[in-house]
Every structure is written in structure tokens, then in C-alpha cells.
Specification:
By secondary structure, the protein is α+β, with helices and mostly antiparallel strands. It contains ten helices and 21 strands. The protein is globular.
Length: about 450
Amino acid sequence: MKKFVFAVLALMFLWQAAPAQDAPAQAVSAQVASFDKARLDAYFDAIEAADRFWGSVALSCNGEVIYARSVGNSDYENGKKASESSKYRIGSISKTFTSVLVMKAIEQGKLAPGQTIDAFFPSVPNAGKITIRHLLFHRSGIHNFTDDPDYLTWNAEPRTESQMVALIAERGSDFEPGSGVRYSNSNFVLLTFILEKVFAAPYAELLRQFICEPLGLDNTYMGRLIDPGKNECQSYRYLGGWTLMTQTHPSIPMGAGSVVSTPEDLNTFAHALFSGWLVKPESLEMMKTIEDGFGMGLFITPFYEKKGYGHTGGIDGFGAVFTYFPDDSLAYALTSNAANYNKNDISIAVLSAFYGKAYEIPEFVTYPVDPADLDQYTGIYSSYDVPLKITISRVNNSLIAQATGQSAFPLEPFDKDKFQYAMEGVVLEFDPAEKAMILKQRGAELEFFKD
């Protein structure tokens, strides 16, 4: 059975099979020299004019910025525009920073990859079998607390270390350590607390001491509650209009998702990491080792024949991605605080501009629908094929969809009785006379009927 996912997914890059090969230095220099900044500016002008994306991107080669652009608002309520100094929550990209700190601890003999975590967290199920390596590779079996239906009922409240450990212990394990793989924020929350114990210092201080200060990352740090007065962005979602998102309290995700940064800082971090300035070569090789799709705070991020390494992040209305292509010393990063557009398409456009690939400047055409006609689509729809209900409701002059246990998302008309959520490739085709609806996503189709 196909699984339909409406929540924000990890950003992935376009992959087209081709033999990998090293790019000569002169080829990279030629790409920098031929970089068409004007066309890429036109791409972002189109997105900004349509009010589809708020955020910043940066592209760096050999540590030098060759393109940067910011569009949209950082603080919508106060009319503050985004700029290169706007700071964003980067979500799970925090895990790459945490992995570097774990490597530092291993290099200093404070931790060992095969060390079990029972001395730190005896209450966590299977703690005597779970190793540091299991946590880093998402092979611990520890349940991911952010997957639970109740998470959004308490995620804005502060939590102490003892409360988070108790919650993680209570939610238990999904499989025996080492027997499988499943992404879990719980792993990196526990790694955060382990780092604080072995270094006898707060995570924020470790981040500053070992990474941010040596690299001059002035806009990267452990986040607190958002302060727009310090150029920190608020985050939003689009539901017929931009709506301010509730903040996840940073005491909850910690080193799994609470770091704040900018694209230029992320590129500096990536270049330093892959140039051997942060960890020893053997540590970097450990991080780059991919097992069942996961490295230590890294994924493979391919683009055509190019092989990059990076990570993605999403928290509240924020989205982020960074990737580094070692053969070309090329770093790319995107940070966003609001989007009604597929952010992966933006990443593809920026990288295409550098590598000389074709990309289209988007055109946004609105299909007119009489607001009075929207009511015929509203209701609760069920399917015989999946235990999923989708509620279609009208908010002012727009349709909003919400699947069971998931966040609401806007629907945009593009043809008669047809609506889409372009960010996730969702298409809904309605048949009002039959009180039916077909959901299409990534090549699969499901039929729903109004209750």
C-alpha cells in the first residue's frame, strides 16, 4: 500500500543517473566565471512577486560566496523584510553540528562509538545494548517522540533534561538496537545530554567553543525563544493567507533541532567540515559512512552525476537544507521561514545555475473559482483503501485540507474541480455530483467518498 504523506518532507535533490567523475579545477573555475546571476535573480524575482517563498539562499565555491539572495519577510507582523543577516531555525541540520561535537568527544577520549548509554540513561529501554554509534546512525530503536499525535499539544512548553529523558524512556523502543533503522529525534536529544555530561558544559557553550567561534560563525548559535529584534525570523504557514506558527520550545529538540543559523554560515561550516578543519580525517570518514541511507549527521545529496553530502531540517514553519560537493568545493544552503512552493525546486534551480543545467523561471497562473462554488467540495472524505480521513473546509475564499493526525494545508485551484498542494505534489480531483474525490501523489491514486 502506498503511504500518502502530507507533512513537510525532507528536501531531496534531483538525481539523474550518470557516471561520477572528478571535475578538474579549471572546469569549476569556468562554471564560476559563466554563472548567470541575472537569470537566477529573475527566478527569485518571480517567486517573490507571487509571494510563494520567504527565505535566503547562498552558494559558495572554495569558501567564497558567489551568490546570495533573500526574499520575503522575516517578521510579517512588523513589516520587516528578510536580508542576508536574517537568522533562521535550521531544524534537523542541528544534528550535523551535534555529530561534529560527538566526534570531538570521541577524539578526546571522552566517548567511544561502541560505548553503551546505560551509564547515562539507565531508565531508557535497552540502554545496555544501545551504543553511541546506534544513536548517531538512527539504529537505536528508540521511539521518535515527535511522531506521536500528542506532540503538538505540548511542544511549545519548556522541558527539563529529566522530563525529556523520562518522556523518551516512557515511549519505549520500536525495534531491537542494531536490527533496523528509523529516523528518531530522540537519539540526538539524548546525544545532547551526553555531550553536556562528558564536557561538563551546556550544549550552547560547546557549540560556541568548538565550532562557531573558531569558524567565525557570528549568526549561528543555540536558539532561544525567537527575538525579531535580533534579526531572528518568525515562521509562518499559508492557509489562504500567512499565519504565524507556534514556536517549538528549544529546550525540547536541543541538539536535534534548536540551532539557529544563516545560509552563509552553513556554507562556511560545510566547507570547514569537509576541508578537515573541524574533525580529524578518520572522524569525517565515519560521518560520511552511509548505512541504510544514514550517515552520522549526514545524508548523500546527489545532483545529476554529482555526489554531495548534507542534511535537511524542518521545524514549525521553518525549512532548511545544506549540501557540500567535495569534488567542486561547492557549498549550498537554503533557509526558509515560510513557503507555498516546493523548496526542492529552488535548490534545483540554484544548483542548475552553477552547473549549467536548464531550469525554468516559474510562472504562476491563478485559475478563477467563484467562492460560492467552493462549498460543494467541503466535507469529510473517507477511503476504502486506507484508514485515513481528509477534511476539506472553506476558509474565506480558499479550500483547506487536513488528513487524520496531520497539519492542515492549502489547496490551490488549477482546473475545473481540480486542486493541488504543490509543495508535496498532492492533487485532489473532485466529482461533486458523485460526492467523490481522487487523491493523486507521486504516481499513486486513492479514491475517497464524502461521509
